[in-house]
Amino acid sequence: MGGPVGRSSTRGEGTRSRVRGTGQLGRDKSLYEGDGDGPPEGGEAPAGSERPKGGRRAAKGRRGNGGPAQGRSSRRAPKSGKRRALRWSASVLAVLILATGGAGYLYYEYLNSNIKKGELTLGDKQMADHKANAAGQTPLNILLIGSDARDSEANQKLGGAKDTFGAPPLADVQMLLHISADRSNLSVISMPRDTMLKMPKCTAPDGEVFPASTGDVQTNESLGRGGPGCTVATWYELTGIRIDHFMMIDFAGVVSMADAIGGVPVCVDANINSRGRDGKGSGLKLEKGTTSVQGEQALQWLRTRYGFEDNTDLGRAKAQHQYMNSMVRELRKGTKLTDPAKLTNLAEAATKALTVDKGLGTVKKLYDLAEEFKKVPTKRITMSTMPNVYGTGVNDGRVYPKAGDAEQLFRMVRDDIPLDGKASKRKKPEEPKDPSAPVGEIAVAVRNGTATDALGPASGRAGDVAEQLKNAGFGKTTVDPDNVTGAARTAILYPSADLEGDAQAVAKALGVPLSQVKKSTDVSGISLAVGADWREDGAYPVSKGKEKTPESAGALNGDDENACMKVNPNYTW
Prior knowledge:
The protein is of the alpha/beta class. The protein is built from twelve helices and 22 strands. The strands form six sheets. An eight-stranded mixed beta sheet has the order 1-14-9-2-3-4-15-22, sandwiched between helices. Strands 18-17-21-19-20 form a five-stranded mixed beta sheet, covered by helices on one side. Strands 5-8 form a two-stranded antiparallel sheet. It is globular.
């Protein structure tokens, strides 16, 4: 296992929090408590739990705010009645909301006015651009955020925990959806809300500045630091994955969307009652087997922590994955959306429930995004959870990214590698238009960026890597002894397009993924930053391109209809 990684100073690079300790999955201490009138914020706590200091900001804190078609020589099979009905109903809705005048236009504008919008990122670090594949396609990354805000009567009733009414919201659900560049597969990474990491500097829309944290902060607090744009910045800081859009929903939004969609089948392996004798818990009560949930019951399922598996946020993430996979399967059957009225209800519910970035702020743009999702078959959808370990001491019960495994998962998404392990349709990266010079003429400056928040720079790493390059024929390689600022990942930077081929030649010689070759105005020539992912001697750790999803990510395939949540024996009836 490689060493932990710290904050990066390289443009386009992120940060990985260090691992304080390791432990077996299943350890947990309650982080929150409710008031007996409903579930506590973001989840449920067992009897006798206490809220740790700093878990939520005080309530006085600010808020983030006709017939079968024929060919010349063949005849296509007629479409099924269900498919025709689905196309017909979709066409009806399209007429309703995309009419060019009169009531249809007004209704379209009404739906647009429902959508709440915000800045994509509130951080001061520019996100790296996607690298297109040979066909010129780029992936799409959307961050889904579930807010626990108690800012309305509906959210307060659904969320409970009166002591948190009016307090800054927490991002208690965070899922990154990655649609591959060729639209052949979709990967999801959930981050447990209890994850501890460094917060980047965020500037709220009203100008308030939230300084970068000096210590580790629970990830769900990012939403209270100016809004969802800070959650986006926090994800980028940790993973180095460019995020194109965010979509945020609150309690009431989940209920309205679940009602509009209709029932979604979920499964438990035993009777479950997630409401303790003290009145705390999500209130979910189901019999063993498969039940179709919707409305408030769907929200209870998505919020249940105590009652699933080992009563941790990891079990809740699995339940959310099961729900999402099942929902996609139900929607694609067409049985939910053959009625124009239901389609209209879903359009209204969705636009009222969502807060999105400004680049996604119209019905047309949301529709276009949905069309991209539809290109991916359910059998190529993979749900996963960020590999993690438990902290120790004051952070006992919280989790940290698992060194090695977490970065491997992030790298696979950055490099657009399918998490299901199946062959990708991706072609090799397009060669730069300007070919590389002879290696003996390529000047490379190597620096030691292996320092982390917990560890100093690994001795001699720049010199060792420089020697590898010289042995490969790069005679003009030098060592930059002064720049030892930490970088989370090894990166090769170049200042202009005429040097891209040279920079790629350096990467190929060392086995560094081409996705880690980036254009940067911060350098005047080719600069190689040996990151904290390469603290040990030898070849670059992923030089052979490991493409296996870590087992610790708990991958779940979208076609798995046998998925069933394990119920904790203490929450059966």
